[in-house]
Amino acid sequence: MTTYAIGDLHGCHDEFVALLEQLDFDSSRDHLWLVGDLVNRGPSSLACLREVMALGESATTVLGNHDLHLLAVARGGGRENRKDTLSAILAAQDRECLLDWLQSRPLLVRRRSEGLDDTVMTHAGLLPQWSLDQAAELAGEAESRLSGETAGAFLERMYGNTPACWRDDLDGIDRLRMIINVFTRMRFIDAGGCLEFAAKEGLDSAPGGFAPWFQFPRDDDPWLLFGHWAALQGEASARRVRAEALDTGCVWGSRLTALDLESGRRISVPSRQR
């Protein structure tokens, strides 16, 4: 069995199918890890969602910020943006089944191997100030709210850039919003773990006093898999933790990338987007 971690699909279904063919992927034998943002911006978000859901136990995916945006539009009173490509999902006859499945996805996946360091997948990364156990507990808090009876109210209030700094005594919507932002929107942080939301380009766009989250050391040594940051083009430069950037900008015309978790080999197919 081979496990492959794949970067953000963003509705690039043709490239996803081509990559699976390149991998000679067999759902009865192999497994996929997907770093989130299955939908939006690309032309075939509905097909991507159906394809991954149909893989059943052969695919594990975490929620990305665009996946949460779809849920907020569909179930939390959110509004579509001009660049969104979600209309086919929202109009699909099987939309409720698809949305139920998506809403039940985790924010963090952790694989423990005897004698080896943990492998952890999130969409945007892992705050250096959080231990793995703490991160898993905090992810569980937000996941419980997303799967609970008040999920719609939470999705409606999920958006926002405050608070930007984690404190253990945060509570209510502030606590949940911060958890969501770390797992799905984080790029640059300062030494205290405060998030900066305006800069979204490459490493040279870092505001003063801020750096990519993976350039700060941790007290442990997990293997961290993340997407979200297409401008990195798969390179977590000057990293001080074992981090693998997997979003290689397929929807922006670059490529879709898979990482073989056993061998460390990367396999890519070119984008078919303009």
TrEMBL record:
Coiled coil: none annotated. It comes from the Bacteria. Pfam families: Metallophos (PF00149). It is an enzyme of class 3 (hydrolase). Keywords: Hydrolase. The keyword Calcium does not apply. It catalyses: P(1),P(4)-bis(5'-adenosyl) tetraphosphate + H2O = 2 ADP + 2 H(+). Residues 1-134 form the Calcineurin-like phosphoesterase domain. InterPro entries: ApaH, Calcineurin-like_PHP, Metallo-depent_PP-like. GO terms for molecular function: bis(5'-nucleosyl)-tetraphosphatase (symmetrical) activity. Its EC number is 3.6.1.41. PANTHER family: CYTOCHROME C5, PTHR40942. Belongs to the Ap4A hydrolase family. Hydrolyzes diadenosine 5',5'''-P1,P4-tetraphosphate to yield ADP. This is bis(5'-nucleosyl)-tetraphosphatase (symmetrical). It comes from Halomonas daqiaonensis.
